[in-house]
Design brief:
130 residues; alpha+beta; 2 helices; flat
């Protein structure tokens, strides 16, 4: 085998291994539970990717909402009547109790109710939208 052929084969093996590792990491990252929090005065959150049967709640330093059981598809709907800035989504395994409480990575969506100016332009009748 010539030196250039060995180099090409080695390079292909290294690139293939790195591709497999990246694909595995991406697949594992998608399994991580996530939540999206909406609202200001009354907060709602949608949890996805959590283990079915676990319980989740919206909670802050001084307020906490009711616990909701995660459905078979890994999702849960949460509400909290009193909004706040430092609200997090907590989940736990009821069989293990407090030792299994963990914070779910969440994204806060602030929506004032009025569409953004660029959205108004893109959705205008002048551009063919009704």
């Amino acid at each position: 085998m010539s030196r250039s052929l060995r180099t090409r084969v080695s390079t292909a093996v290294v690139v293939g291994t790195l591709g497999a590792l990246l694909a595995t990491g991406a697949a594992l990252a998608q399994q991580e539970p996530r939540a999206v929090i909406h609202g200001r005065a009354t907060l709602t959150a949608t949890v996805s990717g959590e283990k079915p049967g676990n319980r989740c709640q919206l909670a802050g330093k001084t307020v906490s909402g009711p616990w909701a059981t995660v459905a078979a598809d890994g999702s849960a709907k949460l509400t909290l009547a009193a909004g706040g800035r430092d609200i997090r989504v907590l989940c736990e395994d009821p069989a293990q109790g407090d030792s299994s409480v963990h914070i779910v990575r969440s994204e806060r969506v602030n929506h004032s109710g009025a569409p953004a100016p660029i959205r108004k332009i893109l959705d205008s009748p002048l551009l063919g939208h009704r």
